[in-house]
Amino acid sequence: MLNLLFRRLTAEPSRGAALFASLIAQARQRHWYVEGAVADTIDGRFAVLATVTALAIVRLERFGEGGDAASVALTERFIEVMEAEHRELGLGDPALGKTVRKLVGSLARRTELWRSAKDRSWTDATRESLYKGDVQPSALEHSARALHDLQARLERSELTALVEGRLA
Description:
168 residues; mainly alpha; 8 helices; globular
């Protein structure tokens, strides 16, 4: 009933869902955790998901107004999913808001990192975005190459395709 009365004030659950689902599929790829040696933990999986989401946000921003709207939708979807996942992990309301804000802050830091990646070493940005500690050079090289390949796919993708979750 309230959705009918306040349609413009309620979020559209499908906004950002297709692209986010595509990014989740990217983050679940085995190579990140095997060849890339990202920790196969909740934190490691979050690092990969936040990193690929940040790369997508940076790409969307370059489309102008339409890209900005898609970026907002993607970020809203990210927040919705993080909140739902942490509720499933048993996190209650008092701590949930603080945890989700921390996760969104982590996404924002990664987004800023990838905005400036051309001004610094791609490998350094990869290390900062994916790893908490030391990493073998071969694993770091693998992840840097995989992120560069993903960024190239994002660059080749048009806005409509990205919104629909289709990467080139």
